[in-house]
Amino acid sequence: MKRIFEVNPWTITSHELQPADKRLQESMTSLGNEYMGMRGMFEETYSGDSLQGVYIGGVWFPDKTRVGWWKIGYPEYFGKAINALNFVKAIIQIDGVTVDLATVPYTDFEVSLDMQAGVLHRQFTVNGVQVQIDRFISVATKELADLRWSFTASDGQTHDVQLTALIDGDVVNEDSNYDEKFWDVLDAEVTNDTAFLMTRTVPNPFGVPQFTVAARQRFVSDLPAIDVVQEDKQVGNVFAGQVGAATQRIEKRVIVTTSRDYADDTAVKHATDTIFASIASATYDDLYDAHAAGWAERWEKADVQITGDEAAQQGIRFNLFQLFATYYGNDARLNIGPKGFTGEKYGGATYWDTEAFAIPVYLGVTDPAVVKSLLQYRYQQLSGAYHNAQQQDLAGALFPMVTFDGIESHNEWEITFEEIHRNSTIAYAIYNYTHLTGDRSWLENEGSEVLVGIARFWADRVHYSARNDAYMIHGVTGPNEYENNINNNYYTNWMAKWVLQYTLDNADTFTSAYQEKLAISAEEKAQWQLIVDKMYLPEADVKDVNDVERHIFVAHDTFLDKELIPVRDLDASQLPINQHWSWDRILRSPYIKQSDTLHAMYYFPDAFTEQQKRDNYEFYEPFTVHESSLSPSVHAILAADLKMPEKSVAFYQRTARLDLDNYNNDTSDGLHITSMTGAWLSIVQGFAGMRVRDEQLHFDPFLPAEWDGYKFRFMFRERLLEVAVDHDGAQVTLISGDPLTIDVSGETVALEVQ
Amino acid sequence: MKRIFEVNPWTITSHELQPADKRLQESMTSLGNEYMGMRGMFEETYSGDSLQGVYIGGVWFPDKTRVGWWKIGYPEYFGKAINALNFVKAIIQIDGVTVDLATVPYTDFEVSLDMQAGVLHRQFTVNGVQVQIDRFISVATKELADLRWSFTASDGQTHDVQLTALIDGDVVNEDSNYDEKFWDVLDAEVTNDTAFLMTRTVPNPFGVPQFTVAARQRFVSDLPAIDVVQEDKQVGNVFAGQVGAATQRIEKRVIVTTSRDYADDTAVKHATDTIFASIASATYDDLYDAHAAGWAERWEKADVQITGDEAAQQGIRFNLFQLFATYYGNDARLNIGPKGFTGEKYGGATYWDTEAFAIPVYLGVTDPAVVKSLLQYRYQQLSGAYHNAQQQDLAGALFPMVTFDGIESHNEWEITFEEIHRNSTIAYAIYNYTHLTGDRSWLENEGSEVLVGIARFWADRVHYSARNDAYMIHGVTGPNEYENNINNNYYTNWMAKWVLQYTLDNADTFTSAYQEKLAISAEEKAQWQLIVDKMYLPEADVKDVNDVERHIFVAHDTFLDKELIPVRDLDASQLPINQHWSWDRILRSPYIKQSDTLHAMYYFPDAFTEQQKRDNYEFYEPFTVHESSLSPSVHAILAADLKMPEKSVAFYQRTARLDLDNYNNDTSDGLHITSMTGAWLSIVQGFAGMRVRDEQLHFDPFLPAEWDGYKFRFMFRERLLEVAVDHDGAQVTLISGDPLTIDVSGETVALEVQ
């Protein structure tokens, strides 16, 4: 744990620059508008350790990564979002000295992320000149990044100040193999006070499209343009002049366009001009206001207020801010990478995290259209999912573990074709959307195609074991990735059965066009029903770690043969085990990385009895190391459900400030974007007990002992509600929309807008 | 299956050059003297498809191969023998035209490998000039390769002939990542009629030593030297003159030295001169004779004669020839790569194949010193084995799956730290040597250290399952590599138990120096005994594919839950499954790549009852696809043991001419060197029923129906025997050594040299 920012409800502020924490600071001050995003690296020269990262949504590269012996069905490449041209790069010179905070003396340092308005502010004073930098990536004009430098002499003198504002196409990924470069420069243009650079990803042998990314910069400057930079892979403009007590400002506007939005390179280039023309008359304040208004609108629907715990208040806002910076549903070709635009790890690709953890949040805090975009994303990639299944000699659709375009693009077999439980979560998202919104139209149209594709995959993927007269699923990796190639993972089997049952239950409601297209025969339905009836789901009587008799679902065929030493009996120096133990030791251990058998209870809290939930929770949790940042929230919700508020709060605390306090000691690589959902889920589904039962919204809230109160907004079926919980109890208010009857702690409450 | 060479008892001859079969032809005409070796690629220009390969024993490179997410315990690199400088490269010009058999017209083509003398002969006629090329890699002077070109005009004219004989340091591996080059040129020298090139492997970040390899060429030529080649990475000498009906010869001698044998680069270079000096007075015939005599001596001890089946005769000799070309025990730092010097696949590294299949052959056909070198190899690498275990957080010694220096150097977790059964085979080799030779000295000295290291590994690698009151081994890959990460692989568990028992049985016989060094406590012995007594080895009553009741050893925990469709019911177009099925499908199938549960019955035929062997054979063999070239011989031996001669012969046929008939359609990549053992093992341990029981040699021979007879030499305890089997029965003759009493088909036979 390491807290390098001050606790403040709306900002992430630090007055220190610790070189060892530079990457951590950069991760935490990342900005994004889902179209593009970047880490909080300094614009100007910084010669210390730093991880540069500018990423464009949907721009990626298939990086070949040879394994020892390739086998049929292995994906051919590892897809990753790549560092794009760095359009914020700058050189600042004060009295001829290049500003480099790693080497020159400075005072008055501040870095501050304003989460309310989505602006990163930074300042420092070097050699008598205070430099302030504001930057934002506009949520009003997606292609626009705006940076403003303000120079003020604070020592009563005047100083020579020079700013070189660059667009650098010579970027690399830290994780590239063999020092590869991923970009060629296609075009460069420089005038006195503008610069343009166009880059294209290098060719690849996998048929993945090459992406063109262009950036043009223009300026509004108090200081005159005095020179240009025109190098092979870098262009820029130079401004210089004298700075005294009167602040001198240089605003740089960058428009970034890509071949994802335009038909050809000429159009990509032309668009930078067109978009500039559309904002030509706008002042910095105009652009800022339009951007800040966008953020205000988001917060109006989504804000969570916590009283009595400022750190928690900051945590939940940081989580929602970074989540929205990564994704807000404006482009159904995009999705939510586990690190968003904040680092290279996980390659910016789409994982099941979206459907498992992000959709439940977006369903509560945004318009349904945002989630519809995420459903649409998978629908568009259905052909890729059929391809993935075919690669494994299987029928139906297998949604990928890691992807940009629907084709599996991770390269470890134990993940890609074993961690197939994700397929059911794609189906669960359709259920979840339908269940929460009450809108069956997606399910009955496009969703039916996705659902049936997944059902057909499962019907082929199971096998019949004669000796057990049961359908089994061998060779999987469950949500607990600390086991590979296990047989009959309870969660995987249960979810496959659920998918088949849910598809059967709804098949007759699909619109006739889709029924015709899908052509599900009576025989096929009968086979699905047979698999549902005979799915292998063993249970066992065991004793838990406290020697209490439990009747549990068996995690997988041989879990109970393991040496069952609970986590509490491990030497604490061995934790986290993934930083101390060999993979061999981890695989053979009983330790669970994230909720596995319990995961379906998070998805379907009402599908299990209280006793089932309690027995399994009490048996498995003691073996769970929660080394996935996705684990604690599931346990927080389940603990709340089981009326164990203290345990629920303890789990909440592991997720609420995961990155802010660098709990896992890896935030320097980037933020855990999809885990940002954990705190909200813990509060809303856990503490507040939000459920939808029989089309009715239910809450069953409790107040964490350390808090004075909490309040959150919740979108439900074209209504905006506010739920406030304090020592006096829970109060639900309808902010907008038609009257609604809900259930609060077992009592029916009729709501109307006051 | 594809047979491109003529059937002939002592040669591998073809009169055709099919461009599509060029690589296959090259593989088959490989030469080696264990110190170095090469594929049968043409010396002169060949612009068609070809796989060049010159390899030096023990010269390798650690090639980084990134996997998606590295985990603790993963090996850091993939070690591979790399293509060394090509010292046979040449350019032939006839009347100014460069000879390239891919483009110029030719007649009179022949390529012929003389297995008796170990010489590759080639000839062709281009434009009226017949070119003959002989080359050998001397088994008398290990550093010497000798090539002789003979030019004769066959059209009554005279022709201009020019030969450029080169040493090329600009070589690559086909399997290199990202077009890497592995060699730097350190030194080059050219005189009128000699050339010298010295290369060194490029630096690596893994602490693996860089290797220097140098080659110097000298000539004995009828044609004068007229020019030299001195390029950045290539040197050579040019000879030219008129050729008429009188044959003109150019003999090129190459001396290859490496830093493996000399202290520094100066010494490596100097040695090429010293060694040349030692053969300065020798003629080509002298060098040839010394080399051929070496091969004659090998054949004297090892030849197998088969009458009535020339293809079989050729097959067994080809197998022994290529095995001996790869390894003959002169350097205990070397071992037997699965492809020897014949290709890049498997990287020329050491696998368990050596102890499992090669040692049993060498024990029968060479002096015990050869096998002693192989035992010594592992002993020298014991510290690497301790390192490998430690990497997995385990005690004791884990011999690597793939190695050059004892450190694991393959990079797939499912192989490196799961296929740990190989560790027991290292112990088995010590038993096997002791059992066959009667020499306990290795076991009681160095061998004890190896054995105890392995025992300690197993004692830590097992875990106690409370629910079963048994010791289990989870997370392994058995000899059947078509399953990964299985639990309680019967073979692995059985062998681990055997290792512990064998170590316990012999611990008191270790010499006092080793007993002291090893310090095995009474508690440790008691723990080993407990594991032996409680090792989990489940059995089951099942029906075989013919519905016969069988009592079997269970392959692993969930094998019997699979969909048990026998291979005979598969569509033949699906075979081999590894070329048609996804890895996912293979892993989940019941199909066995190579003998697994049966493997211990091959090692210890007398440790199982006839009924046990029959039940397991009849149950498992129908699921075995034998897609490892190592599988058929084990089944041939077991079938012979079970008195099923026809089945035994059928399996023998799958191994006898595996490469000669390109059975697996992959011989173009290189020969299956360690599978070369299969035919000999099938004949000697299978057809002839060779066993050692109570220190006595037993034979129980039968004659395959298709043969008139077979005869093989066999070394046993300082004696050379000949076993002859024909329609009249079996005859064992003592060729040399003290009198001996053996058992032939249940009858005691006293042997004396006649």
Automatic annotation (TrEMBL), chains A, B:
Record keyword Nucleus present: no
Enzyme Commission code(s) on record: 2.4.1.8
GO MF entry, a single one: maltose phosphorylase activity
GO biological process: carbohydrate metabolic process
InterPro entries: 6-hairpin_glycosidase_sf, 6hp_glycosidase-like_sf, Gal_mutarotase_sf_dom, GH65_N, Glyco_hydro_65_C, Glyco_hydro_65_M, Glyco_hydro_65_N, Malt_Pase/Glycosyl_Hdrlase
Keyword field: Glycosyltransferase, Transferase
Record PANTHER family: GLYCOSYL HYDROLASE-RELATED (PTHR11051), MALTOSE PHOSPHORYLASE (PTHR11051:SF14)
Family (UniProt): Belongs to the glycosyl hydrolase 65 family.
Entry protein name: MalP protein
Organism of this sequence: Weissella cibaria
